[in-house]
Amino acid sequence: MIVDIKQIHGNWDDGYVLHKHTASSTFIGEDEFGHPRFDTVRSEPGEAVFQLKYRDGWTQIPPLAKALAREILPRFDSVDLIIPMPASNPRPRQPVTELARALGTLVGVEVSETLLTKAPTTQLKNLTTKDEKAAVLAGQFTVADGIPGNTKHTILLLDDLFHTGASMEAACAALRTYSKIGTIYVAAVTWR
C-alpha cells in the first residue's frame, strides 16, 4: 500500500496518519434526483477506507492493518494496548473496531473495545470548525476502569479519518484522566 505519512499534533504524545484521503474531486453534474456527482480520486488508503465504510469492503481490513503495522507502529516506543476510537454512527460492524482487532492480532497487542466510550452526539461531519466540533464533544467521552493492576500503559488510539483533531483531542483528554494510562499515541488511516 502506497503511503505518505504525516505527523499530527495535539494533546497526545505522538501521532501519524498514513495518507491524505482524497487526491482530487471534480464536479461532473447532477444525478436524476438533483444530487451532485463527483469524479473522486482517492489515495490507496483513502479508497480502502471508503470501500470499508460505505461499500462493506471488509477485505480492506488486512492491508490497512499491515500498512499501520509496517509504517506507523515502528515510529512509537512499544504499545501495549490499542483502543479504537468509539464510533459516531451505529453499525452492525464497526470499521475502526475491526481494524483495531486486526492490527492487535497482527502485532500481538491487546485491544480494548470498552475502555473508551462516547455518548451519542450530533453528526460532526456537518460542522465546519474545530471549535464547533469541540463544543459538541465536550464531556462526551467516558473512560471505564478496565485495566487490571496499577501499572501505566502505553496506548494507541486508532481512528480511520483525521480532520480537525477535535475528536482525538476530546478522547485523549478523557484518557488522560485515567491513572493507568501513561503515554498516548494516536494513528489514523487518512487525513482530510
Question: What do you see in this structure?
Answer:
The structure is a single chain. The chain is an alpha/beta fold and 192 residues long. 28% of the residues lie in helices and 29% in strands. The protein has five helices and nine strands. It has helices at 44-54, 61-71, 95-107, 130-137, 166-175; strands at 6-7, 14-20, 22-30, 36-42, 81-84, 116-118, 141-143, 153-162, 181-191. A five-stranded mixed beta sheet has the order 1-2-9-8-5, with helices on both faces. It has a two-stranded antiparallel ribbon with strand order 3-4. Strands 6-7 form a two-stranded antiparallel ribbon. Helix 5 links the parallel strand 8 and strand 9 (181-191). Helix 2 crosses helix 3 (95-107) and helix 4 runs parallel beside helix 5.
Query: Which segments are poorly predicted (pLDDT under 50) over 5 or more consecutive residues?
Result: none
Q: Tell me the distance between the termini.
A: 18 Å
Oligomer: single chain
Rg (C-alpha, Å):
17 Å
Number of strands: 9
Inertia-based shape = globular
Query: In percent terms, what proportion of residues is strand?
Result: 25-35%
**How is the biggest beta sheet arranged?**
5 strands, mixed
Task: Give the SSE layout.
Blueprint (H helix, E strand, L loop, with lengths): L5 E2 L6 E7 L1 E9 L5 E7 L1 H11 L6 H11 L9 E4 L10 H13 L8 E3 L11 H8 L3 E3 L9 E10 L3 H10 L5 E11 L1
Parallel strand pairs: 2-9, 5-8, 8-9
Antiparallel strand pairs: 1-2, 3-4, 6-7
Helix pairs in contact: 2-3, 4-5
